[in-house]
Design goal:
alpha/beta; Rossmann fold; five-stranded parallel beta sheet
Amino acid sequence: MTPTALVYDPMFHLGWSYDVEEAILAEQGVRLVVPESRDEALAALPEADVVIVDAGPFGYEQMVHLKPGVAGLVCYSVGMNQVILADAAERGIPVRNLPNYATEAVSDHTITMLVAANRHVREFDRLSRGPDWNARRLWKTLGIRSFGGQTLGIIGAGRIGKRVAAKARGLGYRTIANDPFIETTGDPDLPLVSLPELLSTADAVAVCCNLNETSAKLLNAETFALMKPGLILANCARGGIIDEHALAEAMRSGVVASAGLDVRAKEPPDPNDDPLSHFPSLIQTPHVAWISEEAFDNYHRECAEVTLDLLRTAGRIGILPQGTR
């Protein structure tokens, strides 16, 4: 039987193509199925050896249709919140993500958000387009500081968090991190500290962790209360890590002076019920931190490689000779 990889929820709304994945998989004798509808995807689940999931949710209701001994699920992203991991673990289904494809792009965007928020780029851009060009008189009220001498706290010291730290130090930041899943960062200039210590010490915070049951609404009214007034916040990870109503209150009170968000709890935000929409010091981009020419190519290739690795591990295709990729 020809091994089959199924794209459960293709990103047709983005004009996405799976030609690269299809070609790489075909070289190893694997068929890629890209259904036209959700009904077609559900009907194809019993024949799939690997299922690729973009947005999900993919949980028990979908997993009951999978064949016994399915090779695994691939989260079509760095994050893994589109698959209900507890349901997969209960059924013994391996779940993999794409951890490497956008490390440089997301860390670049996180640094961009930190810089733009610290320098109040959005407010100055708005003022420069109106009659009040001489906005320089406001400088004393904006709290702009040089990067040198500031401490950047990084929540989540994985691949992206470490790259954010390295790039931030190039600007002059001192870096610290919190990550309950590791014992050391392997970087002497990125020591691990407790979350309360990070939040009470940092002048700026970059959110770089996964969204899971331990990080959902990690930044909330209680944790915002630990922060120093005037903090700069950047989140290019997942919107659900921040309680947005608590962030709105922190921005009203001045605890958070400026924020750069590439991700939101609901995407797109509801224009009639968005607690953050009226803050001029909020910079928002539409979940594009992962985008770069290099990341696009890496995205497709890493998806294919992770799919093939699951199939090899399950014995559905041959093992590569040592030293090959």
